Amino acid sequence: MKVSIITVVYNNESFIEDCINSVLGQSYSNVEYIIIDGCSTDGTLEKILRHSDRIAKIISEPDDGIYDAMNKGIALATGEIVGILNADDFYVDVDVLNKIAGIFEDKSIDASYSDVEYVKRHKVNDVVRRWHSGHFERKRFYFGWSPPHPTFFVRKSVYEKYGLYDPSLKISADYEMMLRVLFVKKITCHYFQQVIIKMRDGGVSNKSLKNRVQANTEDRKAWQINNVRPKPYTLSLKPLRKVIQFF
Q1: Which of 159, 167, 196, 223 could be joined to 114 by an S-S link, Cβ 3.0–4.6 Å?
Q2: What's the N-to-C CA distance of the chain in angstroms?
């Protein structure tokens, strides 16, 4: 079973090789690695090209934001299973994709997600936040829950059937996509109870109060796009869940 991993990057010279090495170092052999670069102006592309003999596809061109770039990667993917690994992030060990592939040997499973640790940007052994996702129940979306997107693996057939990311959403398109396929379309999902990814802190939605407000607005729009109605407390609980992860 081929697993396609997509990394989207723009001007991340400092950390892109950590991300690349964590993919290329996986023990699972049938991995298609795709990198979509948004015309970086630092040394990012040069570092990517150092590994070009082991990266299936490298695209460097302007895009309409991170989710547009993800859509490009998914369109290029030929694997049965697709995962997204952000340029700041890396797998915790060499066996992650082997374990993920094993989950999808069960043909009844459409998607899988796991747990995450947030680490300091320059001290990756210092954990600042833990995201224990918990078992999947559709109704948990009403309580502000969603899976950690970087741990979300899904069959490409799901994207083909239900669509890709909505690039009009600049911060919450991942939330909208997971709400769409898990809550509305009710695909089958498996929770793999293990930390599989470490994420450097400083994500887009949390960089500023302005971004947090925009994310909340887009979260609300995600429900509207899918013609479903959240509970009165849903969108307030979503950011509060992040606070709990610090303890």
Answers
A1: 196
A2: 38
- Rounded CA separation 149/169 (Å): 15
With beta carbons less than 8 A apart as the criterion, state whether 97 and 193 touch: no
Tell which residue, 57, 79, 89, has the closest CA to residue 200: 89
Q: How many CB atoms lie within 10 A of CB 39?
A: 12
pLDDT digit string, tens, across residues 10-27: 999 999 999 999 999 999
User: pTM above 0.85?
Assistant: yes
> Residue 101: CB partners within 8 Å, gap ≥ 6?
1, 3, 28, 30, 81
Q: What is the greatest pairwise CA distance in the chain?
A: 52
Q: What is the DSSP string of 106-152?
A: STT--EEEEEEEEE-SS-TTSEEEEE------GGGGGGT----GGG-
- Give the Å distances, CA to CA, from 202 to 90, 107, 127: 15, 36, 13
Close Cβ partners of 4 (under 8 Å, ≥ 6 residues apart) = 31, 32, 33, 34, 73, 77, 78, 79, 81, 82, 83, 156
- Angle among Cα 161, 116, 234 to the nearest 5 degrees reads 65
